[in-house]
Amino acid sequence: MAEIITKTPLVLAVDDDVITRQLAQDMLTDQGFEIITAADGDSALALFKRASAEGRPVDVVLLDVEMPGKDGYEVCKLIRRLADGRNVPIIMISGREGADAAKRAYDVAATDFSNKPTNWLVLAQRLHYVMRASKAVNELKRNHQRLADAQNAAKLHYWEYDIEAGYFYFLRTTGSIDTFQKGQLQTVEELIRHTHPADRSRLEAFAKKITRRISPISSSIEHRVLDPKDKESFRVLLTQGHVDFSTQEFGSAPKRLIGISQDITDIRRTEDRIQRLAHFDELTGLYNRYSFKENLQTALELNQAADNKLAIFHIGIDGFKRINESFGHHIGDSVLQEFVQRLSGDLLANEIVDQGIGMKNMARLGGDECILMLTCNRKNPKLYASRVAERIKEKLATAFYIAAERKAGNGEDLEIFVSASIGIAMYPDDGQDEQTLLKNADTALHNAKDSGKNQYQFYNDLMSVTGKAHLELETELRRAIEHNQLELYYQPQVSASSGEVTGVEALVRWHHPQRGMVSPAEFIPLAEESGLILPMSDWIMTQACQQAKAWSDDGLPPFMVSINLSGIQFRQSNFEQIVEQIFIHTGVDPTRIGLELTESVVMGDAQNTIATLNALKELGVKLSIDDFGTGYSSLSYLQKFPLDTLKVDRSFIKDIGENSDDTAITEAIIAMGHSLGLEIIAEGVETQAQLDFLRARSCEIIQGFFFSRPLPASEIPAFVSAHRQHSSHLNTPAKNGAQDLFENENKPTSSA
Ligand code: C2E
Ligand code: CA
Ligand code: CA
Fold this sequence. Notes:
By secondary structure, the protein is of the alpha/beta class. The protein folds into four domains: 10-150, Response regulator (Rossmann fold, 3-Layer(aba) Sandwich); 155-271, 2-Layer Sandwich (Beta-Lactamase); 286-459, Reverse transcriptase/Diguanylate cyclase domain (Alpha-Beta Plaits), CATH 3.30.70; 489-739, Alpha-Beta Barrel (TIM Barrel). It is 45% helix and 21% strand. It contains 28 helices and 28 strands. The strands form five sheets. An eight-stranded mixed β-barrel has the order 19-20-22-23-24-25-26-27, surrounded by four helices. Strands 8-7-6-11-10-9 form a six-stranded antiparallel sheet, with helices on both faces. One calcium ion binds next to strand 24.
């Protein structure tokens, strides 16, 4: 209304009669209209268009029917074809009376019809009225369109349910769900037939509820509709809106239910994507860091209750940055995908699926780093974890073939070799909560990277003494070497058949002035990292050789002295010369010296290893493989090396008789070792039962707390002679029994 008052309405008056035009001009101007006039159809159309073009569109048209050239009907039709003409009120005025003229006017979509002669005052009122009416109609049309647009956008369908007839009537507003045809009638049964089988019973119950127990409260259900064409299913939210009583007498039963159904396929799809982005890594499909933390937390709760051990593997691709830089990011991405594929494929099949928890155990932390958690419900969780780590390394041993078509265009695959470093943190030993475990696994990973990559490392407390503390410890260790705080203990090795001492293993001890006894398992990794391992190993070897010479000089019956070698020490280019120098310097008989190497040390570079081992053998020493069974070497691989002895790792011995797997492995190792002509030493023998088992399998030598803990050098002669004269002591356990590693070791009575 306000519009009409503020803006003078523009009237286009069309008449071939000049007098009528003049009258219209005068009379309507007086009534508050602005008038433009045209004498024929063509100029009327031109004027109409110009007014629109000038931004002052015609508000109402007065159109004479009888005109030379185009008559009023034709002009009316043409105006209706114009953009602004579709809804403009047109009043047709005719000199001819009768229903026929009026009918023709309405047929060409005129708004109103009037006869000549014109009563201008009445006409002015009529103009006001048609303008108001057409404004209301236009508004209605516009609202209707808006509503339809909104419905389309929301993919809303309107439906009615005729309670008596039992039919749904769907009014289709969008093409997305063809199952609901406009005007199609459907029974509840038909509706259900079009529904995804998994949702049918729910929908049926819902339909029953809304059609039988009519409730005025709106309720809704989400279900999937099968699209017969695509076979794709749509997600639909079916909402019962209200109950229509309108056509009924007051108090009678309702006749119709009214509701909407909405195609929410896209909404759900988007939600799914958001869900995925929030929880998963897009590139690999693995969980992301955030979800992994949650999964880990749950796993920790479960495992705490079950008293299980967990291993957390933090895995990083070595040199991933270089791959990205030299081949581009898309190749880097493919490498990552393949990497995850290899890790998850076979590994999952054998280890994770085994545990029935699937991909929940793996995540990508970003960049090239992945994380894996495993429940290690085994006797020796660390051994199990190290096997998995070896498996991971093995999985990566063959080349990656990455399609390079985007790069070169020749479609040839790029051959890339990928290795990984792995840091492992064990729950509960290395942390009780997910944050500590992740941090420690990360620390172990960095340690593995720093010490040469393509390897795994278990977390140990010394790794996290960073910066200053680390330096302090290193300084202390350096001082310990200079100030004789290191001492060698010797653990006897006893013949299984005669009970005599056949040798001793030298095991280093650090008497720390404040910390007390520090375990070699802790400070040897630190020494390796800082390079201190070399002077330390020289000291150990010299010390052990001097001791062996001293025992021999003292007239003790001959026995072997075994020395543990570190990989770093072994890989020195002139290692055999260093050893020879020590032999010459100490005057020891090299045939009395044994050297112990772990599988991982010999597994390195086979050619160099064989050369070094041969050179060492030529000096006269005995060579043994330490901790056998924990690495990943096969006996046939070891066949290439000039070895004398296999030391079966104590984790197997521990479970003899208890764990049938480990029992079988031990049996197999002994049998195969013998077939290769190797002597077998069993480590960590603590019980009579273990001893009996090993003796029955002809294991030659026994080492372990059952006979003795590592002893200070000064106590060895007594032990040797005791076991020499009374071979009946064979079954006599150590007095102090099998207890904690350091607890009962005597304080040194003398230092050699
Ligand atoms: P290893 O070479 O496997 O040494 C055997 C370990 O098992 C020793 O621990 C020994 O005390 C322990 N042990 C022996 N019998 C039993 C038993 O019946 N039950 C149990 N539970 N344990 C038993 P230790 O002395 O703590 O040494 C740990 C590791 O540190 C050694 O494992 C070796 O890898 C390294 N290590 C020790 N001394 C040296 C050394 O002089 N040089 C180098 N490079 N490494 C050394
Ligand atoms: Ca050893
Ligand atoms: Ca060992």
